[in-house]
Amino acid sequence: MDGGEPWTVDRFFEGSGTARDIYEAAERMASAIGPMTVRVSRSQVSFRRRRGFAYLWRPGMYVRSVVPLVLSLALPYEIGSPRFKETAHPAPGIWMHHLELLDSSQLDGEVEQWLRQAYEAAG
Question: How far apart are CA 29 and CA 15, in angstroms?
Fold first, then answer.
């Protein structure tokens, strides 16, 4: 599917209306926090300030999964919440928190608080 074409939000979410709907709700939530840029690659869509703070990716692109979208938040500390499918510590001072999203209703006040914390840490 590459063909040298640039990756866009439309191209990334092609064939998955549910994932696209969740992305749009997440993008609205992040944009309301403050200015950011959106970068799209073959593997993910990232929300960035000075560095990335939130990443959205489609697990079905890699493995068999019913989960349309995962939101990964980069924070300078670990948040102990059972809502996260996994938390990884890939580098000193960075914890990646992976939240499986089945629909946009899961983007609630708690997720907004985590997103705000990630946004502030990326400044």
Answer: 23
At residue 62, the pLDDT reads 82
Beta bridge partners of 55: 46, 72
- Contact partners, residue 10, CB within 8 Å, separation at least 6: none
In whole angstroms, what is the distance from residue 111 CA to residue 93 CA? Answer: 21
Indicate the pairing of strand 94-101 with strand 69-75: antiparallel
Q: Is the Cα dihedral 102, 105, 110, 113 positive or negative?
A: positive
pLDDT tens digit string along 100-120?
999 999 999 999 999 999 999
Could you tell me if 97 and 87 are in contact, meaning their C-beta atoms sit under 8 angstroms apart? yes
Q: Where are the beta strands (DSSP E) in 2-114?
A: 37-40, 45-48, 52-57, 69-75, 86-91, 94-101
Structure tokens at 45: 């869509």
